[in-house]
Write a structure and sequence with these properties.
2 copies of one chain form a homodimer.
Chain A (H helix, E strand, L loop, with lengths): L2 H16 L3 H9 L7 H6 L2 H9 L3 H10 L2 H8 L4 H9 L3 H8 L4 H10 L3 H10 L7 H4 L6 E3 L4 H11 L8 E5 L5 E6 H6 L6 H4 L7 E2 L4 H10 L4 E5 L5 E6 H20 L11 H26 L3 H6 L7 H23 L9 H30 L2 H31 L10 H25 L1
Parallel strand pairs in A: 1-2, 4-5
Antiparallel strand pairs in A: 2-3, 5-6
Helix pairs in contact in A: 5-7, 7-9, 8-10, 15-16, 17-22, 19-21, 19-22, 20-21, 21-22
């Protein structure tokens, strides 16, 4: 049964839940992966959810819970006492367990950890809770399989049997020395193809990439993507092997970065999702809107100096939106190209002067094309002088907006600020002001000269 | 030696290349992964590159070439004859090989394929070339390890020995029946932990997710991310196992989607990168700029009807940028929230009416806050009537822009168009026009009434 089918069958499933038709439900649930339950859970009320979960085994419940968003998860935790929660936590990988426990108040968290039966797991979780979420330590799981470099294949396979109870997906066995320091890796494939008496030291690969616990999450993602790694081992500052990060954790980092960039580009100030409360959504959106408003008011104040010009040539006002919109569009295009290129530094050299010259060339070509077009259209229904003012202003606005759009993300990046912010409302507002200033200055100049 | 160190050492390495200091260079190159060579390659001229490649083994050269962008790759291919190119291609996975050959003219492509020594590889490539890049067939590689359900462990290990010559990263062995149809999987871990005489049919997992050759690439990415899969097998329409897709191929799809979305949001019409030619960059940027220009001209034409109002109250013009910018900002915020939520459909139910009501509520709250603020500021330096016009217009513009920003991505998505386009210049232009219409209509109404 696939996800699509489940959505189609939802009405029948809900009816079966209300009638407590256990046989029918168990039959359906047996075929589902834990990830498939999400649409169902999000569609049910609290008592229905609690009934569904009562039909499932602990591991499935634990996995469903770990896939939920934080709010729904805490709704569900209300049905369970701390003993039960500890039991679910115990079924998870240590990294997921720590992430979930991180959302509890300290007192509850410590109580739950003390109730976890597997004392090694509890210790692992306590260790992981020490790390920030945005570093390798916060991404890693403690579950891994390691072999001492002096072992032979037979011993190693015995150890795999012992250690893999908690490691579902196993690709690489990390090789450590007597001090537990990471010295290399050996693939399962090599172990299968070697004879029982072969020593690990004869077949292991000493060439291994690793990260330290404090390595930035984004850097971990970059390294794993660059070298196409499925897992990467994590060592502490003494080189001791302390955990491993899998590619799915890193995929989440990559996706989250995309959302952060999109938020930055669209003027949403905190991490929100569409299903957050109205008030939270308003609060996330208001700051940038208000900054935009003050930019607009500043522009209005500035135009006040040109009130006489406007009274004489009211048609000047007609082209204000054209000027500001073009400045905004050009600025966003420029900054978004730079942001995209900054995201892949290793394939492009970072010569800023070359960048600006190129941006200028592109701006000149685009500016000339657009100027010409606008001039031709404006003289159709306005005096030639106004057409001249509008197209000249457009040309300079395009140049300036290109320059700003190119330089701002580079400056933000230099100061460690997300460059995607440069495509957002702040730069658009700045470009609006710039456009108005250029337009009215040129107009003032040309009308006063004659 | 890490990438950072390599960048620092670039001057010395370049000097060594110019002096043909083979010993020094080989020593450095020995420690590098093929991915590490990219910044070096991008910093050298053609003769230097050809010298560097001559120091490396075929496999490393093949991998470096497969990591380059298309233009640079074809520059490099000029140093080699078709025999040599065929030799490099032979070192790659079949999916990368097919991707590279796809960029050659048909005649050259067929000649190179005919020169590939490994006839099975040539056959694989010919098969893969049949598929489009945006479906599972275009993503998959032919290299995989499969076992017949009737084999025992000893036989399977023998087969792994034979089959894995070309499979570097091996996690899962696919289980097929006598007709080569996919029936399940068995992990290497289970094989290691089972005795030689155990039959595959006793230990294999019949529960396996697969995709068909024609499945859309984005859907493959969604499935692999949802179920945290490192590889997924690909079957043809008869259920026969024909290939497998690894998570790194899918990661590229995810990242490319992010770039496509960013382009859509910022008004860049074709796939370009900062290091493309000036002319290509101009061509990608002009279409949306020109659409914006026509929007602006339309707005100017529309405002022409209100020339008399403007002549009497020139101060009305001051607030045009405020109105259009706020409409734009609100529209982009709304659409970007919807785009983000559409990207994760499985965690949020798709009740459009509920969505619109919520967007409306958020718009009302934001509208009231902003209206109040603007009213207070405008009466400080303008007559109360104008302040009333501006804040009333703002309120309606915020409402309308929210509605447009919410509904447009939903409509685009329904018609299979990338919803991120709705945050782009098209919708911003539409919102500008809408804002002008609302502003001048309210102004006309209020000034004519009195």
């Amino acid at each position: 049964m696939s996800y699509e089918n489940l959505v189609e069958d939802l009405p029948y499933i809900k009816e079966a839940i209300n009638n407590k038709n256990e046989g029918y439900l168990k039959n359906i649930f047996d075929d589902l992966y834990s990830e498939d339950f999400l649409p169902l859970i999000y569609d049910l009320d609290s008592t229905q959810i609690s009934y569904v979960l009562s039909l499932l085994d602990d591991e499935t419940v634990a996995r469903i819970i770990s896939n939920l968003d934080e709010d729904t998860r805490h709704q569900i935790f209300k049905f369970f006492n701390k003993h039960q929660i500890a039991k679910f936590i115990n079924e998870l990988y240590s990294d997921d367990a720590a992430d979930i426990l991180n959302t509890f108040p300290v007192k509850d968290r410590e109580e739950i950890i003390s109730l976890i039966e597997d004392k090694e797991m509890a210790m692992h979780i306590n260790e992981l809770l020490r790390y920030d979420n945005d570093c390798a330590g916060g991404l890693m799981a403690k579950e891994l399989v390691k072999a001492n470099v002096s072992w032979n294949i037979k011993q190693t396979i015995e150890e795999i049997r012992l250690q893999t109870e908690n490691v579902e997906k196993l690709y690489t066995i990390y090789v450590v020395n007597d001090d537990d320091m990471l010295v290399g890796r050996v693939s399962l494939k090599k172990i299968i193809l070697s004879s029982d008496n072969t020593k690990i030291e004869e077949i292991y690969e000493p060439d291994i990439l690793s990260v330290e616990t404090h390595t930035d999450a984004q850097e971990v993602a970059d390294i794993m993507q660059k070298y196409d790694l499925e897992t990467i081992p994590v060592v502490n500052m003494y080189g001791k092997l302390v955990g491993r990060i899998t590619v799915d954790d890193v995929m989440d980092v990559v996706k989250q970065q995309a959302v952060v960039d999109m938020h930055a580009m669209s003027g949403i100030s905190t991490h929100v999702e569409e299903d957050d409360t109205v008030w939270k959504l308003c609060k996330a959106r208001l700051p940038w809107l208000i900054i935009g408003i003050f930019g607009g008011l500043l522009g209005a104040f500035f135009m006040g100096f040109f009130e006489q010009n406007l009274a004489i040539v009211p048609a000047m006002a007609f082209f204000i939106p054209l000027i500001t919109a073009t400045g905004g569009n050009v600025g966003v295009q420029s900054s978004s190209l730079i942001v995209q290129s900054l995201a892949q530094t290793d394939t492009y050299d970072t010569n800023h002067a070359k960048r600006l010259v190129k941006a200028l060339l592109v701006a000149i070509v685009n500016g000339l094309v657009i100027c010409g077009l606008v001039f031709v259209f404006v003289i159709l229904f306005q005096p030639i002088k106004l057409a001249l003012v509008v197209s000249l202003a457009l040309f300079f606005v395009i140049l300036l907006a290109s320059f700003m759009g190119t330089i701002t993300p580079l400056i933000l990046d230099r100061f460690g600020i997300n460059p995607a912010l440069a495509s957002g409302p702040f730069i658009t507002t700045a470009n609006d002001l710039l456009g108005i200033a250029v337009y009215f200055s040129i107009a003032g100049l040309l009308y006063n000269l004659s």
